[in-house]
Amino acid sequence: MKIIKFGGSSIANYENIQKVFSIIEQKSEKEAFALVFSAFGGVTEQLLQCANIAQQSEESYHTILQELEKRHLEIVKKLVPVQQQSTALTFVKVRFNELGDLFHGIYLIKECSNRTMDYVLSFGERLSNFILAAGLQAKGIGTSYVDARDLVKTDDRFGHAKVNFKTTNKLIQDHFKSHDDIKVITGFIGSTEKGETTTVGRSGSDYTASIFAAALGAEQVEIWTDVSGVMTADPRLVYTAFTIPQLSYNEAMELSHFGAKVVFPATMQPAMKEDIPIYIKNTFKPDEAGTRISKDSGEGKIIKGISSMDNISILNVQGPGLVEVVGVSQRFFGTLANNGINIILISQASSEHSICVAIASKDASRAKSVIEEEFRYEIQSGEMDEIQIVPDMAVIAVVGENMQHNPGASGRMFQALGRNNVNVAAIAQGSSELNISAVITQADLQKALNALHEAFFLS
Ligand code: ADP
Ligand code: MG
Fold first, then answer.
1. Which chain regions cross the lipid bilayer (predicted)?
2. Position 299 confidence tier, pLDDT thresholds 50, 70, 90
3. Final residue of a domain: which of 207, 226, 245?
4. 202 lines ligand 1 (CB under 6 A)
5. Which residue's alpha carbon is at the smallest distance from atom 5 of ligand 1?
6. Which residue, by CA, sits nearest to atom 12 of ligand 1?
């Protein structure tokens, strides 16, 4: 039994869906599996856009919503013969009526909470999976639609809900006792104990696949996307990037944590726990081997890959009296955590007089104000300087288990950056010695990535 997941780009239009269906058809003759699909490419973004338009302005979300409905109805009409269309067409129409009501509600109250947003976004996966299940059925491949909200139980941290594995695993195992058809499972979504819709994080469909695989003791997870595996760098930024044949779970987690969006970071955990390998494969080049992620790191250079994130800000706290202030770092990190601000990297300052972290720029002004509030007394008394925010930065990370035995990596990294006049604002090394990361100016990002790629892989 395998769990096979196709991402939004793999099912972005009818032509792509044909490619996906032919992969599924070939497999269905040979092996048992369940499917997980994302929303059709771009749909999540458009639902988000509608919700934002509805709550913010007079401008109308109706055009986008109508286009979305038309797009879904057209896919049904292309995939399912006329005589069998009615169930799927009704499903789509009812969902779009609900969406219309929802957006109107958001428009009236001018507010969309995280909880409402999760409900809005869940329509993307519910629509695509229902339609694709019907499309496969029409080709004579027996399927059943599974709304993951019935099986994946989470807490109520809307937007990035935590899975309750005990309950979830039991529900999944019970549901899979009947083996007669191919289950088509909505990625990305779950629900709370009370039945409220949640999502497990943007691009969380990869994670859904891994959750099901672990619960069922599947033999492998396959994640089908639009590139031939995890590559040595983001191929859109480094044209000479190439596929990494083998990665350890930890290496894959580090690479994705620092921005390699080809696989969602949390995906590795459930699979790793059950020792289930994850394969990253290309829908458009199905014969290419792709990447195997398992407990073995395999052969390789001193590093496995380079990843990066843009739209980063540095948050800097320093001051002459900081050494004397009790529990500065505890209060600092506690305040950020309590306000849900995610820290991407903590820089090891040489002195105890400063703390420097990298965060997403969208969180920067909020982070500044909560930290100022927490340290109001220290700032007023001069023990602490004004909180500093440095915008327009990027984080770049080199990742690989071989670095542990090889002291040369950081030298090579900073030499390459220096030679190319890339100024490094902060550095950090993961405690596991699996990564070295640096904060640089966003404008230097592509140059820096290419310089590092050249230094580590092409020389
Ligand atoms: P899907 O829709 O299949 O989930 P995503 O867009 O989430 O696909 O992820 C695939 C994309 O990730 C690729 O098209 C590529 O641009 C990007 N990407 C970023 N870093 C890497 C990397 N190191 N290796 C491969 N792809 C990467
Ligand atoms: Mg993805």
1. none
2. confident
3. 226
4. no
5. 262
6. 262
Q: Can you give the pLDDT at residue 66?
A: 96
* Nearest alpha carbon to residue 457 among 237, 231, 154: 231
* C-alpha R_g of the chain: 24
**Domain housing 34:** 2-226
Q: Is the CB of 125 under 6 A from ligand 1?
A: no
- Contacts for 255 with CB less than 8 Å, ≥ 6 apart: 230, 247, 304, 305, 307, 397, 399
Handedness of CA 67, 72, 75, 77 (dihedral sign): negative
> Tell me, what's the pLDDT at 163?
98
For ligand 2, the distance from its centroid to the CA atom of residue 435, given in whole angstroms, is 22
Is 261 within a domain?
Answer: no
* Interface predicted TM-score (ipTM): 0.99
Could you read off the pLDDT of 364-423 as tens digits, one per residue? 999 999 999 999 999 999 888 889 999 999 999 999 998 887 778 889 999 999 999 999
Helix (H) or strand (E) holding 65: helix 62-79
Is residue 251 within 8 A of residue 313, CB to CB? The reply is: no
CATH code at position 415: 3.30.2130.10
| pLDDT score of 180 | 80
Kindly give the number of the ligand 1 atom that is closest to the alpha carbon of 255.
23
Q: Identify whether residues 220 and 342 lie together within a single domain.
A: no
pLDDT tens per residue across span 90-137? 999 999 999 999 999 999 999 999 999 999 999 999 999 999 999 999
What is the percent of the chain where pLDDT is above 90?
85
Pocket test for ligand 1, best of 262, 280, 283 (most atoms within 8 A of CB): 262
Pairing of strands 197-199, 189-191: antiparallel
Verify that 153 and 25 share a domain, yes or no: yes
Task: Tally the C-alpha atoms within 13 A of residue 451's C-alpha that lie toward its C-beta.
Answer: 19
Give dist(CA 284, CA 10) in Å, integer.
Answer: 8
- Looking at the structure, do residues 356 and 211 belong to the same domain, yes or no? no
Cα–Cα distance for residue pair 5/2, rounded to 1 Å: 10
Q: What is the C-alpha separation between 431 and 202, in angstroms, rounded?
A: 27
One-letter amino acid for residue 453 of the chain: H
Specify the pLDDT at position 383: 87
Average pLDDT, the chain: 94
Q: Taking the model in full, what pTM does it have?
A: 0.94
CA–CA gap between residue 375 and residue 278 (Å, rounded) = 45
Structural domain includes residue 417? yes
